[in-house]
Write a structure and sequence with these properties.
The chain is of the alpha/beta class. Among the domains are: 212 residues, Class I glutamine amidotransferase (GATase) domain (Rossmann fold), CATH 3.40.50.880; 59 residues, Golgi alpha-mannosidase II (Immunoglobulin-like, Sandwich). The strands form four sheets. Strands 9, 10, 11, 12, 13, 14, 15, 16, 17, 18 and 19 form an eleven-stranded mixed beta sheet that branches. Strands 1-2-3-4-5-6-7-8 form an eight-stranded parallel barrel, surrounded by four helices. It is globular, with a radius of gyration of 26 Å. Bound molecules: alpha-D-galactopyranose and zinc ion (ZN). Zinc ion binds next to helix 6.
Length: 702
């Protein structure tokens, strides 16, 4: 019989390794002239608790000092040392920063800006993703790396490039766009019809006439081309990423791959660009410790961070993700690179783990002595190291991650989801700007809804509802605010789910256009209109200082009472099959339905015809949870403002409740008869929990 107690066995994380991973970007390519520094790094990794090294992210010039001549010596050395210490490597393909010998010799690999000017050598992420030469050079390098290290026992993940982003407007990219369009539409007639190009005489009579939309040319007058250009841009990156991975595979490595998503890359459709990869990863650089208490402001960076991390989950349902980067201290590029206050770093890490991450890695291990990031926070700063406050903060994260090993591999389990997708985001925020330029409220509406769940201990996913990866059957309630564009087949998928008992909450600016941004005849998709049981006639817009009223009908099905403000965008609709819960109180459309419900099969479709202040969301969601059997983890009102509760559930049903206190002062939360223990301290928990300032408790219910 084995002498290992089952409790000592660590569950496997998303990479099939035991426990949660703790690591950092490691850039020894900058320190080859100082072998003593590398010695010191490997001496200090165990002291800091660093188990994973992301290597070679910007190592191309060191790896391939001249075309076709590879110098693997420095990487061999790091692989050996890493293996000796029992650590793991995330090996990066170095495509994010091209060496000068390449960009100087072959400037055509460089990106062309929106204004038509080609970049000069310099910086990073400055290449054209279509360039055949760049793809060829990247493939050769990746192949060589994979052939040498692809089966190394220390290699745990391919970190493919770094933070893809941006758009290239070169002629090669425009030619690739035309090919993409030809594959999509088949004929110019179909394209002209889809783009409604008879408008302003924009009809295309030859494929060559199609250029990338930009301020100097086709600005935003033809919405279809703007939408397709964005889709193409993401697909073009997807192809670039797929080619990077194909070269890794042809080099003989079957180790999983990931690309690190990041805030600056959110203009790309994450569903499209992550498709060729195995694992989702995200770089988090939140700034919670701003001068205001964030939950008191409309823009709440804490909730936003949670929302984005739910999105990481949605990209690969049923799988944890990796926090690939965060800073243990400040980020030099922020307007005010404020130091993370004591406790914030550990809390940031725990927030990601709470939302499904199986790792926490940093940018970076050691700050360089030169270059743009020399004053960016690092585990070892130029003036820091062991004994420093930041180093101790990293050790406190090590301690937490070690204790949380049982959480590895566990998932979320929400009964509610909020819909978010890039087509809708692009259309409403950048292209159509319906609702007044700059006032699209997408995805603010999503964030406002998410915040109610975050504050009330109701687990909530963020999903792309029309993605084939999204199984609506898992959810009781789906919130689809401003779901303006409907993808082909989506209404059927949604109707089947509602008929089987699903509860849909949607409203203003939903169901208006098809996949090409053509308005449905009659103003709404016919299937959507049947679902909501309403006919749309007009959309009104109000100035910020104006409002209308939702007047709740007495005895309405949700038990809502009183009045709430209707603001910004207000649809004027007519009842068909739906039942009224509230009407507008003012103006020429007073008495028209403002909030309705339509019974469809076993399910219900709620429609909120206007944007509201948070008060209606609070009341409406609480009523929906109550009526449709969604139970918050704790009774409503249990959590103080600024404290959240997020849950992960292991395959064997074991639950982990993450109480996170984002406030500067201690907070208490009642457990309401539940008992268990805190995984972070081992202390038993019952009655009231006290959360330290910026503190956390990972409650394991009995
Ligand atoms: C990004 C990059 C890193 C580094 C950090 C600094 O996340 O991936 O290389 O530049 O930003 O915050
Ligand atoms: Zn290009």
């Amino acid at each position: 019989m084995s002498s290992i107690s089952p409790l000592a066995v660590k569950p496997l994380n998303v990479l099939g390794l035991p426990g949660l991973l703790h690591g950092c970007d490691y850039n020894p390519d900058q320190w080859q002239h100082s072998p003593e520094i590398i010695e010191e790094d490997f001496r200090l990794f165990p002291e800091a608790g660093i188990g994973v090294l992301s290597l070679n992210i910007f190592g191309w010039a060191r790896l391939e000092p001249e075309d076709g001549r590879y110098d693997f010596g420095w990487l061999d050395d790091i692989f050996e040392r890493t293996e000796r210490g029992g650590r793991k490597i995330f090996l990066s393909t170095p495509s994010a920063a091209a060496p000068n010998w390449l960009t100087h010799r072959d400037p055509e690999v460089l990106r062309v800006r929106e204004d038509g000017v080609r970049l000069l050598p310099g910086g990073r992420m400055n290449f054209c993703p279509t360039s055949a030469l760049y793809r060829e050079k990247v493939a050769a390098t990746n192949h060589a790396l994979a052939a040498r290290y692809g089966r190394h026992p220390s290699l745990a993940l391919w970190h493919v490039s770094n933070e893809y982003h941006g758009t290239c407007y070169c002629e090669d990219c425009e030619a690739a766009f035309r090919l993409w369009l030809q594959r999509k539409y088949g004929s110019l007639d179909a394209l002209n019809a889809a783009w409604w190009s008879a408008f302003w005489s924009r009809t295309y009579t030859a494929w060559e006439q199609i250029r990338a939309p930009r301020a100097r040319g086709e600005g935003t007058s033809v919405h279809g081309i703007c939408l397709d250009w964005r889709r193409f841009t993401s697909d073009n990156w997807r192809d670039f990423i797929a080619a990077e991975i194909a070269a890794i595979r042809s080099g003989g490595s079957s180790v999983p791959t990931a690309i690190n998503l990041h805030p600056g890359g959110l203009h790309l459709d994450a569903w499209r660009i992550t498709a060729p990869t195995d694992v989702i990863s995200w770089d988090a650089y939140p700034a919670y410790h701003d001068k205001k208490e964030p939950w008191a402001t409309a823009w709440n960076p804490v909730v936003y961070q949670s929302f984005i991390q739910e999105l990481c989950r949605a990209l690969r349902p049923g799988q944890p993700w990796l926090l690939m980067e965060t800073t243990p201290s400040s980020a030099n590029w922020m307007d005010v690179p404020k130091l993370k206050r004591p406790g914030i770093h550990r809390l940031t890490v725990l927030q990601s783990i709470a939302h499904g991450a199986d790792s926490a890695l940093y940018f970076q291990w050691r700050a360089g002595r030169g270059g743009e990031e020399k004053f960016h926070g690092a585990v070892i700063e130029n003036s820091g190291g062991p004994g420093s406050r930041v180093f101790a903060d990293v050790q406190s994260a090590t301690d937490a991650l070690t204790r949380l090993a049982p959480v590895a591999g566990s998932l979320g389990s929400a009964e509610i989801a909020i819909g978010f997708d890039w087509d809708n985001w692009w259309m409403q925020s950048e292209i159509v700007a319906q609702g007044g330029r700059g006032r699209s409220h997408y995805p603010w509406e999503q964030l406002d809804l998410y915040r109610e769940h975050w504050e009330n201990a109701v687990p909530c996913d963020v999903v792309d509802p029309s993605s084939p990866l999204t199984d609506l059957g898992r959810y009781r309630i789906l919130c689809l605010p401003q779901h303006y564009l409907l993808r082909p087949g989506f209404v059927d998928k949604l109707t089947a789910w509602v008929e089987a008992g699903g509860v849909l909450l949607t409203g203003v600016l939903s169901g208006w256009v098809d996949d090409n941004d053509l308005v449905f005849p009659g103003g709404m998709d016919a299937g959507w209109r049947r679902l909501v049981g309403l006919r749309r006639e007009e959309l009104d817009h109000l100035y910020p200082e104006e409002s209308n009223r939702f007047v709740c009908q007495s005895g309405n099905a949700l038990g809502l009472t009183g009045e709430f403000k209707a603001i910004a965008k207000l649809e004027i609709n007519h009842l068909e099959a739906a039942e009224v819960l509230a009407t507008y109180g003012d103006d020429f459309y007073a008495g028209h339905p403002a909030l309705t419900v339509n019974k469809v099969g076993l399910g219900f479709v709620y429609y909120q015809a206007a944007r509201s202040e948070q008060g209606l969301r609070t009341a409406l969601l609480a009523a929906l949870w109550r009526r449709h059997g969604v139970r918050p983890l704790l009774p409503l009102g249990s959590l103080p403002l600024g404290v959240t509760l997020q849950r992960r559930v292991a395959a064997d049903g074991q639950e982990f409740w993450f109480f996170l206190n984002f406030r500067r002062d201690a907070q208490t939360v009642g457990l309401h008869d539940r008992t268990g223990h805190d995984l972070l301290t081992g202390n038993p928990c019952s009655g009231e929990l006290t959360l330290a300032p910026y503190g956390a408790i990972v409650f394991v219910p009995r």
